[in-house]
Amino acid sequence: MIRLQKAISDSGFCSRRKAEEYILKGKVFVNGNKITELGVKVSNTDDIIVDGNLLSYTEKEYYVLNKPRGVISSTKDDKGRKTVLDFFDTDKRLYPIGRLDYDTTGVILITNDGEFANLMMHPKNMIQKSYIAKLKGIIDGSSIKKIKSGTIIDGVKCIPDRVKLKSIDKKSNTCIVEIVIHDGKNHEVKRIFQNAGYDVIKLKRESFGFISLDGLSSGKKRKLTKKEVKQLYNLANKKGL
Q: Over the chain, what is the mean pLDDT?
């Protein structure tokens, strides 16, 4: 027996917090009975309807995908463009954890576990994401110092965990910079560099927490191991304390 909101989250329908909202609004039925209070426990034999949708218990799946350039980080696209789910052949209700821009490549996690997704995305849990950015122009020390001091994005000061110049190419007037962040603002890395006066030519997410691209070529995926999932849960809970 588990709490109703966890059962809803485990189904992949929504996060546990959103499930609690559905319950309190009277939009959840268990075996035909409306549930409006938190704390009710259910089993995998109970019929659960949320906002008119009958839920089914499914095995949780966790993947890391090396997202190619020109792919949408969404479950579908009204313009008919390729999405990250086009790399999966499954009847599971998968979705990406967070987003990478259309032209950004690299690590993106895919799951059907709503609670896990919420933990990974919540800023308070401070899960580090490492990026490699190719910039137009050669960044100088004062600009790096400015970036390290923080950039205001959507009214919030975003301070990177690390910024490091990796290489420069004077001939093409470009440079490669590593930046590590734990926030999740839209276009955050690009906006950080643009605020310092540099346009991002290419951007690749190298890692999400300790999950990297090792062994994954562009467009390839692999399942996370049970140990990796547990470690990510522990990392989020530890950071969120």
A: 92
DSSP state of 148: H
pLDDT computed for residue 241 by the predictor: 45
CATH code, 6: 3.10.290.10
Separation CA 152–CA 145 (nearest Å): 15
Kindly state whether residues 141 and 196 are assigned to the same domain: yes
Q: How far apart are CA 73 and CA 84, in angstroms?
A: 6
What's the structural domain count of the chain? 3
162 and 46 part of one domain? no
Same domain, residue pair 133 and 105: no
Q: State which residues form the domain around 105.
A: 62-123+213-239
| Coil vs helix vs strand at 8 | helix
- pLDDT higher than 70, residue 207: yes
Question: How large a percentage of the chain has pLDDT more than 70?
Answer: 98
Longest Cα separation, the chain: 70
In degrees and rounded to multiples of 5, residue 212 shows phi and psi of: -115, -175
For residues 19 and 81, state if they share a domain.
Answer: no
Of 77, 101, 140, 161, which residue is the catalytic one?
Answer: 101
Decide if 101 is catalytic: yes
For residue 68, the domain's CATH number is: 3.30.70.580
Predicted pLDDT of residue 31: 92
Per-residue pLDDT averaged across 57-61, rounded?
77
Is residue 125 predicted with pLDDT exceeding 50? Answer: yes
CA distances (Å), origin 44, targets 5, 52, 232: 13, 19, 26
Q: Which helix (H) or strand (E) holds 233?
A: helix 226-239
C-alpha span between 214 and 157 (Å, rounded): 32
